[in-house]
Amino acid sequence: MDEKFRQTAAGAVEPSHVRDEVQFEARGFGPAAEALQLRVLNISSHGLSATTDLAFQPGDRLRLILPVVGVMAAEVRWAKGMRFGCVFDMPIDRASYYELLAAVLEPLPPFDPQPERSSPTAASRSNK
To answer: Does the pLDDT at position 68 exceed 80?
Structure first.
């Protein structure tokens, strides 16, 4: 079995890499070069899981267009209804992967460099 996947005791095939939970829309092309829209549910540098309105079979070849990294060739490893998991032909390099995550994840609230006025440190400064 491919080192990127492991077989569970029940015989199911699962990714062996930790995946980041995400929710973003992407586009691509299916096995017959048909255009597809997909919602990516989780991703790692080695593959992803998504839903789409097309049904795939293990072994189907896809071309996925992802933010930052562009077109990624992938092979479907499992499919259940309209949800599927695939492995990329080539993993995403670490720097590009983190840029992709930064582009698709919710932004953090703005950083407030001012300490709270009620903190002991702020109070001790005002007493000097």
So the answer is: yes
